[in-house]
Amino acid sequence: MKLNTLGITLIAATIGGLAAVVGVLTLGQPKPISAASNDRYQDYVMATGAVSINPRVQTDGVWMLDYKSGKLLGTVIDKAQGKIMGWAEVDLVDEFKVKPGQDVHFMMTTGYITQSQSALYLAETATGQFGVYTMAAGPNGSGIAIKRHDMGTFRNKVEGAAPVVAPAVPLVPAVPPGPVVKPVLPMPMLPVLK
Fold first, then answer.
1. Is residue 87 located within the same domain as residue 123?
2. Are residues 44 and 131 in the same domain?
3. Whole-angstrom Cα distance, residue 159 to residue 182?
4. Residues 58 and 22 both lie in one domain
């Protein structure tokens, strides 16, 4: 009888300890909410992310890759009017130096740069090219413009691959890597059974 009570107590203590650890891990520091999404359908890829047109107003940007036309399109949604602010475009055939009829496969996603600005990361997997883009206000503050910040490769040059475009202005200054510190979580001590 005493062994059953001790076993039940041990199981209850273990479950309680695990619940406490899970609670600390999931209810710890609050994280800022940021929304970004990607989707693909046949010859189209779409991604969203924040765009800084006016620092006081958060704006959502929409990126669309159109395989049929070979273009990267970008627009911003005017939240005050609920309207699209026109489309900017980049000719990907020229940008990635692909030949007509060449088999290409693009992947893209957005990433967080600052509180109100995302970047688009665009990879072409057949040639191994990788570009970084942002959207901003167009010339003289009118419309939308797409700016390429960098272009490079993610693998060694492949025979017959398109040439690499020289990098533009760096997006973010390089930061030397620091030591990686892994958090140590206290684990509840369980009694040793003999």
1. yes
2. yes
3. 42
4. no
